[in-house]
Task: structure prediction
Amino acid sequence: MNHTKIIFSFVLIFSVMLIPFLLLNASAEKVPDWIRNTALWYGEGKVSETEFLNAIKFLVENNVIILEREDIISVENLSALIIIPNGNVNLSNSAFYKPLNLEIASGTVVTWINEDSVEHTIQSQDESGNNNGLFHSSTLGTGETFEFTFEEMGVYNYYCSFHPWRVGLVTVK
Ligand SMILES: [Cu+2]
Result:
């Protein structure tokens, strides 16, 4: 017996061993007769491709054919918006920051937009109301924006240096 014959014999033995497994996996009992007929008729040109594909679709939808789906890891571009609404300037208005407490994931870029008719700033402060220097916008006119990226978990307070009663929160989870 030369090399080729030995290898061929191996392949043959393994093939014989594998065939029953393959047949078991593709259990004919799970495939309804109408699908087998559809496949046959499709091969004979008696039914349309759409009918054949619908039959395959049925097998997928009923888990006769199981497709393994890979988890899709998407790299999201995390961003969020806080609106300084019109009327925010007046103490008596309920024109709070929208949202008043923004909840985000770490790495989110937060943009504040001033939709009020007067100027505002965004100034970070600690829990006691003291400036902590984490972020501080320049004066924002109507329609102007300020961005800050929150990298670490925590609760962040901010306020407007012109209207210090306007306090908002960003919670990074
Ligand atoms: Cu303000």
